[in-house]
Amino acid sequence: MDILQTIILGVVEGITEFLPISSTGHLILANKILGLRQTDFAKTFEIAIQGGAILSVVVLYWKSFLNKEIIKRLFVAFLPTAVLGFLLYKIIKGYLLNSEAIVLWALLLGGIILILLELFFKSRKKENLIDDTSSLPFKKCFLIGCFQSLAMIPGVSRSGATIMGGLLSNISRKAIIEFSFLLAVPTMIVASGYDLLKSGASFSVNQVWILFVGILVSFVVALFSIKFLIKFIQKYSFIGFGVYRIILALIFLIFII
Q1: CB 200 within 8 A of CB 187
Q2: Which of these, 16, 38, 162, 241, has the minimum number of CB atoms within 10 Å of its CB?
Q3: Number of domains in the chain
Q4: Do the beta carbons of residue 160 and residue 110 sit within 8 Å?
Q5: CB 76 within 8 Å of CB 133
Q6: What pLDDT digit, counting tens, does each position of 103-161 carry?
Q7: CB atoms within 10 A of CB 94
Q8: How far apart are CA 214 and CA 6, in angstroms?
């Protein structure tokens, strides 16, 4: 992996991390297009590079991490992914991250579900929506965390899964988007840290440099991606993202894979 490929992957990560289209899935497909093999370092890169995007949340929402009520809710929502991620780590890295077919089918089915969920959400009366992240019921936080754990399957999308869980839990778009941003911080810090602890000692100086560049690029790009999504949801639904997922999956299934 050279510097140009690293920058490309950093841009892909920064753009896709907070959109409901799966950053991990896009990184795996980008590796395919760039002709990069799914080595142990490439898998770690795909996990660790998300740390850069997560830092953008800390910069933009640092005040929220000083709110004890929000912290307690993030802890509850984080538990399902923490437990399942620890138990299934070898399966995730050894099998799921190797399968382009899983990524594509997850993108395709996730796109269909996202569209159907949006249509269902539009048909409901928008009454008594929860609009404050600091007052989310703990049961709903845990449910959102369960949805997030589905994103251990590459192609599902962590943000997409949490958004779906939030919409089904009668949480407003604004609140679930913000909560999804905040929940990404403990989730990806632990995931990246655990993976680097397991395999980071074997990296060369050049690989450490590549990781640094990828994380830096994803951080800068993610700052703009977050602001874009906030503005986007004020005017539009998530149906466009669902259509995009379906088209992308079909293109790869028919012409590339």
Answers
A1: no
A2: 38
A3: 1
A4: yes
A5: no
A6: 999 999 999 999 998 888 776 666 678 888 999 999 999 999 999 999 888 889 888 89
A7: 11
A8: 6
CA 131 to chain centre: 22
Give the Cα separation of 45 and 37 in Å (integer): 12
Task: Point out which residues pair with 171 in neighbouring strands.
Answer: 130
Q: Residue 127: which domain range?
A: 3-256
For residue 72, give the amino acid letter. K
Burial 116-129 (b: 16+ CB within 10 A, else e): ebbeebeeeeeeeb
DSSP state of 136: -
Q: What's the CA gap between 183 and 85, in Å, rounded?
A: 15
pLDDT above 90: residue 255: no
The pLDDT, as a whole number, for residue 200 is 66
Residue 257 pLDDT > 70, yes or no?
Answer: no
Query: Does this model's pTM top 0.90?
Result: no
More confident residue, 208 or 7: 7
Query: Which residue in 168, 152, 144, 184 sits closest to 19, CA to CA?
Result: 184
CB atoms inside a 10 Å sphere around CB 12: 23
Nearest CA to 149 out of 193, 189, 183 is that of: 183
pLDDT digits (tens, 9 = 90+) for 61-85: 999 999 999 999 999 999 999 898 8
Beta strands in the chain (DSSP E): none
Rounded distance, CA 52 to CA 225, Å? Answer: 13
